[in-house]
């Protein structure tokens, strides 16, 4: 569920939605989501002073409270 949420929001933010990729790495107590976008769109996903990235992480933590696992979002370039 979290993977689809991140992909949906990222695709809405970028100019090249086809290049959005979200990889999931499952751990015992946490899940890592690795977000990749086109090099030109990385700034749109991070935002000024990291505001959009922080908002994405806040949404993720709220969405993951049901599962009881901690979800970490990494934005890769």
Automatic annotation (TrEMBL):
Top-level taxonomic group: Bacteria
One GO cellular component, as annotated: cytoplasm
Protein keywords: Cell shape, Cell wall biogenesis/degradation, Chaperone, Cytoplasm, RNA-binding
Main localization, broad class: cytoplasm
UniProt xrefs under InterPro entries: KH_dom-like_a/b, KH_sf_prok-type, KhpA
Single annotated GO MF: RNA binding
CDD domains per record: KH-II_YlqC-like
Record GO biological process: cell wall organization; peptidoglycan biosynthetic process; regulation of cell shape
One of the Pfam families matching this protein, by short name: KH_KhpA-B
Compartments where found: Cytoplasm
Complex formation: Forms a complex with KhpB.
NCBIfam families linked to this entry: PRK00468.1
Xref: HAMAP family: KhpA (MF_00088)
Function: A probable RNA chaperone. Forms a complex with KhpB which binds to cellular RNA and controls its expression. Plays a role in peptidoglycan (PG) homeostasis and cell length regulation.
Family: Belongs to the KhpA RNA-binding protein family.
Protein name per its UniProtKB record: RNA-binding protein KhpA
Organism listed in the record: Spirochaeta africana (strain ATCC 700263 / DSM 8902 / Z-7692)
